[in-house]
Design goal:
191 residues, mainly beta, two-stranded antiparallel sheet, 2 helices, 9 strands, 11% helix
Length: 191
């Protein structure tokens, strides 16, 4: 008898936010990024993130506020639409360089792998672009069903909207992607 059943599969993460784990973390960027500054406010026993568009005076004297990028991604590990928030300068610099490079361009057109090694102050991140190719249609189908307003991160609200929510500023993701390749027009591409 083996340690785990033959048909065992590790359960999918319930989190709507991707967390970079040790080893390779593969994802596809699906939206444009929002950017700003993140600080932490102490509330009793827990720290709460405070995100702003402009740099504010530090709320926490123990550490400096950090520049962040947040965007919607497809997490290949969990096969799920999530939000990835990046504060690591090495990752931001690598993605920015790819974005600015004529050969790679917009990082929404290819997968990225962030390889994480080490721990705490010894952590190293390497960003590896995967040659551009069209993503699987089911990724876009899942994305179109997921209602997300990244701007809610600035107010500390849940950016994942349920079906009943009708906020201004919410992206209507169902119209973000054409239903077939024949319908693709440059003017219809949302990014």
């Amino acid at each position: 008898m083996s340690f785990l059943p033959d048909n065992y599969e590790k359960p999918v993460s319930q989190s709507n936010f991707m967390r970079l784990e040790q080893g390779e973390n593969r994802f596809r960027i699906l939206s444009s990024a929002i950017v700003g500054w993140i600080d932490w406010k102490r509330e009793g026993e827990k720290n709460t993130p405070v995100r702003t568009k402009d740099r504010q005076p530090n709320l926490n004297t123990d550490r400096q506020s950090r520049h962040f990028w947040a965007f919607v991604i497809w997490d290949y590990r969990d096969h799920k639409v999530k939000i990835l928030e990046i504060t690591q300068t090495t990752i931001q610099d690598a993605i920015y360089s790819l974005h600015a490079n004529q050969d790679w361009g917009d990082p929404k057109n290819y997968d990225l792998i962030v390889k994480k090694t080490g721990e705490k102050m010894e952590t190293v991140y390497n960003v590896i672009p995967v040659p551009p190719k069209k993503a699987d249609q089911r990724i876009f189908d899942e994305y179109s069903k997921t209602k997300i307003d990244l701007n809610k991160l600035y107010s500390g609200e849940n950016p994942f909207l349920d079906e009943a929510t009708t906020d201004r500023g919410t992206q209507d993701l169902s119209k973000s992607y054409p239903s077939s390749e024949d319908d693709i027009q440059v003017k219809d591409i949302p990014f």
